[in-house]
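[recover] target loaded
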């Protein structure tokens, strides 16, 4: 059966509110396809692939139930095609299409691929907006400039004003733009009992796991018979409501905290809505508005500090990293300001390390395909920064292991925030920390093999000597950075003999990171 128009829906474009779907047109066929190129462009967590495939299948079924024509292809169906362009060309021919349309991909890689293919098609090709982000794509150059530091706080304030969110006229509600000082609490013993049980779903993954194995897709992480994350809009809304009811009231307080002393240590007060958002099953504004209503109706149980911390992640950070990504691609992926080139240690793939902080964060990532932002930034990211791990290898690991990882959001967080590989486009200093930070924000150090207070002994916390060695090795690059003046001065005060001991200890560790 022929169709005049072919429209492509990618796995992260599952937006049922898109204007494409306002009218049913028998002349339009929507193609949704499991693709080998997407399953294999990096080594993904097996639960990540299962979740994407499940969400895509659900979206296809939803469209069909509403009367739309859908061409849904599994790996079995798409295996005969080398890549996405070859598949599209074949479908255009099969349906004798007169036009091809696609929503603008969020990844540079895919947009470039579709642009190259479009130039070869002998029919009109139309790129449309995904209708998801709050800041229009065409406005990004007005707010971001390539290879230039753009302060997130300034961008965030502009977005607050633009959308009149948490504003009292022209001023911020409560008289402050953010409440970071209130949001750096660690868990006390009494707090641990109050951590809510996470809401997880029981979506069967068996069908998708079978195809992943049958097609020899190389994956990482622990397999699960079920997809615990939302795979459709309805489940996504349930998770959003659950967060607002049970987690938002303490989200800000503990958004940077970590623990091993709770059965819910992997989820804590985090919403875990990023997969739903990044697949576009939820829109950012509806998430913000739902949280704002919960805040307003809470009779003071949800404080301004809690809601502001959550709003900043979506209205500020999420929109900000998207802008930084697009204005800096494709050069972003080549940045390596600190010249880091060591290989990622083997324990990133199996969590077999004596460092409790890394063991906890990595084992959680392998088991759930999830870790919250501080575990990513200040545990695995901080270690990779201090150890001088190749940014490309770290990129691949983050992109593959996390269920919500899509390059537009992963790359700025990894290259800029975790590794300072851009030299300061986002962060004005490297987010480097010794064991003291981990000890302050978590209970990881309490039962660790290593001693957090020691620097050079045989069982000293590796982060301590690696931190000071990092300062020493990059002294010249950091000397002119006023935000690094405090650690630089402290390093200058260290006794020469102690400096030698720290350098030697760090060299010993760096010579065989796999043994840590």
């Amino acid at each position: 059966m022929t169709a005049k128009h072919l429209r492509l829906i990618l796995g992260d474009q599952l937006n049922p509110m898109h204007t494409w779907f306002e009218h049913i047109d028998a002349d339009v066929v929507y193609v949704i396809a499991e693709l080998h190129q997407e399953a294999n462009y990096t080594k993904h967590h097996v639960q990540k692939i299962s979740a994407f495939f499940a969400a895509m299948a659900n979206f296809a079924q939803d469209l069909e139930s509403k009367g739309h024509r859908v061409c849904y292809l599994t790996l079995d169906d798409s295996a005969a095609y080398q890549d996405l362009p070859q598949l599209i060309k074949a479908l255009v021919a099969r349906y004798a299409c007169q036009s091809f349309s696609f929503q603008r991909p969020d990844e540079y890689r895919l947009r470039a691929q579709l642009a190259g293919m479009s130039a070869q098609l002998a029919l009109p090709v139309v790129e449309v907006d995904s209708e998801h982000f709050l800041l229009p794509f065409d406005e990004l150059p007005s707010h971001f400039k390539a290879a230039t530091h753009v302060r997130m706080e300034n961008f965030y304030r502009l977005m607050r004003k633009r959308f009149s969110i948490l504003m009292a006229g022209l001023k911020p509600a409560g008289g402050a733009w953010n409440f970071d000082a209130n949001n750096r609490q660690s868990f006390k013993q009494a707090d641990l009992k109050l951590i809510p049980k996470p809401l997880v779903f029981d979506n069967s993954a068996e069908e998708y796991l079978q195809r992943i194995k049958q097609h020899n897709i190389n994956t990482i992480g622990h397999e699960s018979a079920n997809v615990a994350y939302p795979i459709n809009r309805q489940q996504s809304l349930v998770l959003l409501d659950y967060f607002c009811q049970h987690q938002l009231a303490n989200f800000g307080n503990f958004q940077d905290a970590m623990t091993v002393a709770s059965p819910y240590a992997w989820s804590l007060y985090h919403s875990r809505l990023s997969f739903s958002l990044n697949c576009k099953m939820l829109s950012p504004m509806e998430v913000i508005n739902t949280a704002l209503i919960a805040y307003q109706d809470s009779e003071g149980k949800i404080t301004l500090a809690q809601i502001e911390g959550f709003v900043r992640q979506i209205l500020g950070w999420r929109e900000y990293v998207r802008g930084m990504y697009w204005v800096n691609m494709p050069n972003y992926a080549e940045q390596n300001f600190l010249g880091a080139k060591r290989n990622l240690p083997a324990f990133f793939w199996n969590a077999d390390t004596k460092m409790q902080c890394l063991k906890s964060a990595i084992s959680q990532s392998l088991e759930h395909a999830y870790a919250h932002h501080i575990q990513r930034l200040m545990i695995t990211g901080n270690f990779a920064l201090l150890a001088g791990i190749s940014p490309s290898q770290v990129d691949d690991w983050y992109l593959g292991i996390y269920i919500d990882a899509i390059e537009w959001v992963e790359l700025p967080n990894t290259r800029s925030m975790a590794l300072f590989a851009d030299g300061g486009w986002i962060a004005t200093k490297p987010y480097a920390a010794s064991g003291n930070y981990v000890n302050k924000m978590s209970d990881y150090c309490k039962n660790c093999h290593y001693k957090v207070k020691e620097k050079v002994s045989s069982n000293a916390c590796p982060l301590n000597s690696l931190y000071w060695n990092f300062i020493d090795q990059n002294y010249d690059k950091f000397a002119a950075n006023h935000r690094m003046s405090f650690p630089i001065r402290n390093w200058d005060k260290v006794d020469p003999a102690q400096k030698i001991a720290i350098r030697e200890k760090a060299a010993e560790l760096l010579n065989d990171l796999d043994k840590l």
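[recover] notes: The first strand starts at residue 5 and ends at 8.
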